[in-house]
């Protein structure tokens, strides 16, 4: 990947190591989310790990490197869309079964990846929401500069 | 060694960490002692057999520490030496001692460790796999039985993030209109 901001961020050693570790952290977060109904973890823990992978990239390469690839507006929109989709899941349950947030997708076979009805879906929505939201909070708090005087 | 002794050890460590956090003058060291408290809590959850909570606490503590260090450690924050008045200290000690004595009476009536009053957990343990199809019972509880709770949690997080954006944005709406 071409780096347009070589002077920002940390030293060459940190940047080289980050290239090996950041996708491992990201994929671990996704694993935690997708296996949320089978193993410890879930949408919230996985979302925080995904946000931490973005934070890792920001700390090593500087914030402009990340913002060039992932737009801030896109992050804001993704977070809001995920929040709407969570509520929409509840409304679809209300429409099909008559109860708000009722499981409308069936139970499935126990111990398999595609089971537990809408739980994996909600996990993915929560992951997107928490990951994007917490990264944006980090971005705003870390790049905030109080005015002089 | 039994779990209880490890738990007392970790809790003592956390109390020492929180006292050190208040007393240290350097702000970076103070933030790191907050991290000690949080990671100790994560270990305590692990010893109590709650890997879900331990994972969330561990990951979240690291994120909090990164945010705190990044946002506050390089700022020059004035540390004012706290002047302690004698009557204020006496009042604080009296109130704390009375709360301590009252809490001894209150905690005597609590159900003993591992024997909760609420029996609904037994039903969850027995029926969660059949009713929700989720192997991880904690996920089954928070995303199926108690999904309203999760909806509230998502709303709280959304509001918190919205508040951060609103406070830390560069130009306010009124200013942009005036230009």
Task: Describe the structure using short key phrases.
heterodimer, A: 149 residues, mainly alpha, 66% helix, elongated, B: 179 residues, 2 domains, extended
Characterization of the model:
The complex is a heterodimer of chains A (about 150) and B (about 180). With about 150 residues, chain A is mainly alpha-helical. Chain A is built from five helices and no strands. Chain A has one domain (about 10-140). Chain A has helices at about 10-35, 45-60, 65-70, 70-95, 120-140. In chain A, helix 4 (about 70-95) packs antiparallel against helix 5 (about 120-140). The relative contact order of chain A is 0.16. In chain B, about 15% of the residues are buried. Chain B is built from eight helices and no strands. Chain B is mainly α and about 180 residues long. Chain B has helices at about 5-25, 25-45, 50-70, 85-110, 120-130, 135-145, 145-170, 175-179. Chain B is about 75% helix and about 0% strand. The longest helix of chain B has 23 residues, at about 85-110. Chain B folds into two domains: about 1-80; about 120-170, no CATH class. The interface of A and B includes residues 101 and 129 of A.
How many E-type strands of chain A?
0
Which outline of chain A best applies? elongated
Number of domains of chain A: 1
Count structural domains of chain B: 2
- Low-pLDDT parts of chain B are none
Radius of gyration of chain A: 19 Å
N/C terminus separation of chain B? 69 Å
Contiguous runs where pLDDT drops below 50 for at least 5 residues of chain A: none
Largest interface: A-B, 48 and 38 residues
Summarize the structure in short.
The complex is a heterodimer of chains A (149) and B (179). Chain A is mainly α.
SSE blueprint:
The complex is a heterodimer of chains A (149) and B (179).
Chain A: H1 12-34, H2 43-61, H3 63-69, H4 72-97, H5 119-142
Chain B: H1 3-23, H2 27-47, H3 51-72, H4 86-108, H5 120-132, H6 137-145, H7 147-168, H8 173-178
Helix pairs in contact in B: 1-2, 2-3, 5-6, 6-7
